[in-house]
Design a protein that fits this description.
Strand order of the largest sheet: 9-8-7-10-11-12-13
CATH class of the largest domain: Alpha Beta
Number of helices: 9
Largest sheet: 7 strands, mixed
CATH superfamily of the largest domain: Vaccinia Virus protein VP39
Length: 426
């Protein structure tokens, strides 16, 4: 079924919204003011999901995406919007989510922190691979599919990553089992050195490992292989993690292969600085950092607190966190490899709790926080929906949102990071 309509607004998830016969119609890769013909893919009771078929009249807000596979590759949702429009919509959608759910008042909502560069910001990329009858293909999944779109470059990648990727695109077809390599991860440290994590099917790991060692030597990058879950990661040559720098004076943090790091190092540094400022530590506080990773926030806070406890369920990240603290002689911090749920009560009391959960949020932790009742809570979120869900028990039980600010760590996409500051009001 084909539908003609005008796009009225953008929605959480990045899609444009128009209306047809009383139903909302969601269309990716559109902008407010577009007049489009779209094809319905799922006709629900109250809304329709559709694909853009033809642009009848483009919106004045549009620009021509500079990437040749924009709208085909599933990586970028908003390349067709100028960057100032992306920022305007991210800020608007974030603010609307907090206001609509009643967790914050309008005076607590701060303007979005723009990225210094809308391009070439990512220090980690995942490239999908497939051996086809026509040859080896490397690039990214098409939107909502596992079809690999051949992409010789990505404008979001830091140039050093792009150079390593171009080298690998030429080398991978000659690997012993290119059909057994579904994904390549390329990371770049702040010193512009690169590392590669090659995902390999278990039966091909042995021959590919030897080839990768020689190839990494030629390409000048560190390398590791992964043949299953993260526990299967094996170093092949060099240190296949990455190093990023935060805080002032500088703290260099090592993140091992397979570990989590924010993909936008410039904006991550800005976010760390905002967390430190919001914490407003005097040097006497006891602090808890949940979902602490390798110490991205933990160690800057420890420099300014009496003591800090970091909790992270991924044990290799805790190994890196301990090493990062030791490297910088930060001795007032302890790390625990355990779930976040219950940690506040196991290790409390605390004056300040920081949490930086994954996209699924940290709803079970809210009960712990309401029992512990720290004076201040800082919540770093990458999903406004789970953020507002988690904040509701707090704001209904004695806490107030002092400030909440979106940070654009992901230009060309609809995704947004944020920092929310809550204080207890007894």
């Amino acid at each position: 079924m084909f539908i003609e309509l005008e796009i009225e607004t953008l929605t959480f998830g990045g899609r444009g919204l128009g209306r047809h016969n009383g139903k909302a119609v969601f269309v990716p890769y559109t902008a407010p003011g577009d007049r489009v013909r779209c094809r319905a893919t799922h006709d629900r009771a109250h809304f329709v999901e559709a694909q853009l078929y033809e642009m009848l009249q483009p919106s004045r807000l549009r620009r021509t995406p500079p990437c040749p596979v924009a709208g085909v590759c599933g990586g970028c949702d908003w390349q067709h919007l100028p960057y100032d429009e992306q920022l305007r919509w991210k800020e608007r959608l974030f603010h609307e989510q907090l206001l609509r759910t009643g967790v914050a008042s309008i005076d607590a909502l701060l303007p979005i922190a723009a990225a210094p560069d809308e391009w070439a910001y990512r220090n980690r990329m995942q490239f999908k691979c497939r051996q086809t009858q026509e040859g080896f293909v490397a690039g990214f999944y098409r939107h909502a599919s596992h079809y690999v779109v051949d992409a010789p470059f990505c404008r979001l990648a830091i140039p050093a990553i792009q150079a390593t990727y171009e080298f690998l695109r030429k080398a991978l077809p000659d690997a012993p089992r290119p059909d057994a390599i579904p994904q390549v991860d390329v990371s770049c440290s702040d010193d512009l050195s690169t590392s590669v994590l090659l995902h390999v099917l278990p039966d091909a790991c042995s021959p590919v490992r030897g080839w990768l060692q020689a190839t990494a030597g030629q390409g000048g990058f560190a390398a590791a292989v992964q043949s299953g879950r993260k526990q299967s990661i094996e170093m092949v040559t060099g240190d296949a993690g990455l190093v990023t720098v935060v805080d002032s004076p500088p703290l260099s943090l090592r993140i091992g292969a397979g570990g989590f790091a924010q993909v936008n190092p410039d904006q991550n540094r800005r976010l760390v600085d905002a967390v430190v400022a919001a914490a407003a530590l005097s040097g006497r506080e006891r602090v808890l950092d949940l979902f602490c990773g390798v110490g991205n926030f933990t160690l800057p806070l420890a420099r300014r607190a009496d003591s800090v406890v970091g909790v992270e369920s991924y044990a290799p990240a805790i190994v890196d966190a301990v090493a990062n603290a030791s490297r910088h002689a930060i001795g007032n911090v302890t790390f625990h490899a355990e779930p976040a749920e219950g940690a506040a009560l196991r290790h409390g009391p605390f004056d300040l709790v920081l949490l930086d959960p994954p996209r699924t949020g940290a709803y079970p932790v809210m009960r712990d926080l309401l029992e512990l009742r720290p004076r201040r809570i800082l919540y770093v979120s990458c999903d406004p929906v789970t953020l507002t869900r988690d904040l509701q028990p707090l704001v209904h039980n004695g806490y107030r949102v002092i400030t909440s600010r979106p940070f654009d760590l992901f230009p060309q996409t609809w995704h947004v990071e944020s920092l929310t500051v809550l204080e207890r009001h007894d």
